[in-house]
Amino acid sequence: MTLILALDTATAAITAGLVRRAPDGSVQPLAERITMGAKGHAEALTPNIGVACADAGVAVGDLGAIVVGCGPGPFTGLRVGMATAAAMGLALDIPVYPVCTLDAIGHGTAGRVLVVTDARRREVYWAGYSDGVRVSGPAVDAPADVSLDGYTQVAGSPDHTTLFDLPAVDHHYPSPSRLVQVAGWDEPPGALTPLYLRRPDAKEPRR
């Protein structure tokens, strides 16, 4: 079984977890460390990795692969996880698999489900799923501009699922196991391209 480090910093759940994956695709979660906060991703992620490894009784050198959520998410938080994954993959000479964070939230849901997360500026990142498979999005819009046509449930950030008149599914954030499950293991890992969907909030000062 391959030992995998799963990371995600695209949401308020700053996530690091250790998962073993068998050749048949089954996964065994070993340990996870999640810190909640819209800020402080850089300060929290590395300690979370250390705690998760300690709890699982493994060393970083034992890793066989890394999976990282590539968003969509706010610029500052998202790049922390992706930069960390890229640096660790290079240092350990192991593959790094990018996945859509919304896919990891939507994975395992049944029926037509809308997944939403915080995009700030009174907007949400969203994607639509049918039995856990993405059928629309990802995109960023004001909640009132997201069509609910055909959706029967909503998943994602609890602060934002309440903005939609749909029953909520208990898939709030991307778990390490679901991050691993949605990675494309049958192909070489793709490029680590962040899904910002819009320009960064921070702007260079005018000169």
UniProtKB/TrEMBL annotation:
Signal peptide: none annotated. Residues 38-151 form the Gcp-like domain. It holds the Pfam family TsaD. GO terms for cellular component: cytosol. GO terms for biological process: tRNA threonylcarbamoyladenosine modification. It comes from the Bacteria. This is tRNA threonylcarbamoyl adenosine modification protein YeaZ. It comes from Mycobacteroides abscessus MAB_030201_1075.
